[in-house]
């Protein structure tokens, strides 16, 4: 009986842990943020924007993508970011249908965002698939800046750049992005070392100073258009990440090295969006089996 009690205890603990991994549905915006290269874990400089958005959209959540954001193994890092962002979006979309989602990304995080939404940019990056229409129906705004896969002259482009970025984006991926053109803004300025194939790293660090207010207004406006609920309630907004002065990001210092086209990364796949439900079901089935055995013994 002692062994049986231990088994029941372990099953109960495992079921509780599985339930804890389910996301909490936001009454406001669920903001998924991918930071720039070499920024500390968290939201990076983009936290300046999400704090302002959360102040205007009560009961919002800010969730940083947990990925390396390194330059030295850029392709692996970026691929890990796509896997992590898509997992967040899939899990939240499944748990909270009808909720409102915003995606924000800077530098490497901008490519993570665009690859997550539109599918892989193409070689040498891993062939990630685009997000499903079911999940994308909940995404009301996508705001990216300094994207190394920037494509010039698209309807959602902002800034002064007229050149493509450091990496090509495949025509199939561009076509997928165009499906969401009314929900995307992509900032790139002339001379940016990454998104404009230029030689000026300083330009790459100035997007929040130059366009921060526009980005905040865009995301808030997109949210307000998508919901009939007034955003002016008296509820307190959730802004868990501190505001920082955007003096760095996308590589620290003026001597940061741009990512190069090396071999395509090999990335271990992460669990799909249904993994948590499957795990919980198996645990419940095991628990019922044990309880049945107990009843027969009694």
Automatic annotation (TrEMBL):
<keyword id="KW-0378">Hydrolase</keyword>
<feature type="compositionally biased region" description="Low complexity">
    <location>
        <begin position="227"/>
        <end position="247"/>
    </location>
</feature>
<dbReference type="GO" id="GO:0052689">
    <property type="term" value="F:carboxylic ester hydrolase activity"/>
</dbReference>
<dbReference type="Pfam" id="PF01083">
    <property type="entry name" value="Cutinase"/>
</dbReference>
<protein>
    <submittedName>
        <fullName>Cutinase domain-containing protein</fullName>
    </submittedName>
</protein>
<feature type="region of interest" description="Disordered">
    <location>
        <begin position="227"/>
        <end position="271"/>
    </location>
</feature>
<keyword id="KW-1015">Disulfide bond</keyword>
<dbReference type="InterPro" id="IPR000675">
    <property type="entry name" value="Cutinase/axe"/>
</dbReference>
<feature type="signal peptide">
    <location>
        <begin position="1"/>
        <end position="19"/>
    </location>
</feature>
<dbReference type="InterPro" id="IPR029058">
    <property type="entry name" value="AB_hydrolase_fold"/>
</dbReference>
<keyword id="KW-0732">Signal</keyword>
């Amino acid at each position: 009986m002692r062994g049986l009690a231990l088994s029941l205890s372990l099953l109960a603990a495992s079921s509780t842990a599985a339930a804890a991994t389910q996301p909490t549905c936001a009454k406001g915006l669920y903001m998924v943020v991918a930071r720039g290269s070499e920024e500390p874990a968290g939201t990076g400089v983009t936290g300046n924007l999400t704090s302002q958005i959360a102040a205007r959209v009560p009961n919002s959540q800010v969730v940083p993508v947990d990925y390396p954001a390194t330059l030295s193994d850029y392709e692996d890092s970026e691929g890990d970011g796509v896997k992590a962002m898509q997992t967040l979006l899939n899990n939240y979309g499944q748990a909270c249908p009808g909720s409102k989602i915003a995606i924000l990304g800077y530098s490497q995080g901008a490519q993570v965002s665009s690859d997550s939404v539109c599918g892989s940019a193409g070689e040498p990056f891993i062939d990630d698939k685009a997000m499903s229409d079911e999940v994308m129906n909940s995404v009301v705004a996508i705001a990216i800046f300094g994207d190394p896969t920037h494509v010039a002259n698209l309807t959602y482009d902002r800034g002064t750049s007229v050149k493509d970025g450091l990496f090509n984006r495949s025509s199939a991926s561009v076509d997928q992005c165009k499906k969401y053109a009314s929900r995307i803004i992509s900032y790139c300025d002339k001379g940016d070392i990454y998104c404009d194939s230029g030689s000026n790293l300083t330009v790459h660090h100035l997007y929040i100073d130059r366009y921060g207010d526009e980005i905040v207004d865009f995301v808030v406006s997109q949210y307000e258009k998508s919901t009939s609920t007034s955003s002016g309630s008296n509820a307190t907004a959730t802004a868990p990440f501190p505001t920082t002065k955007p003096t760095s990001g996308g590589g620290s210092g003026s001597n940061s090295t741009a990512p190069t086209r090396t071999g395509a990364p090999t990335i271990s796949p992460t669990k799909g969006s249904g993994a948590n439900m499957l795990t919980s079901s198996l645990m419940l089935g095991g628990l019922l089996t044990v309880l049945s055995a107990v009843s027969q013994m009694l």
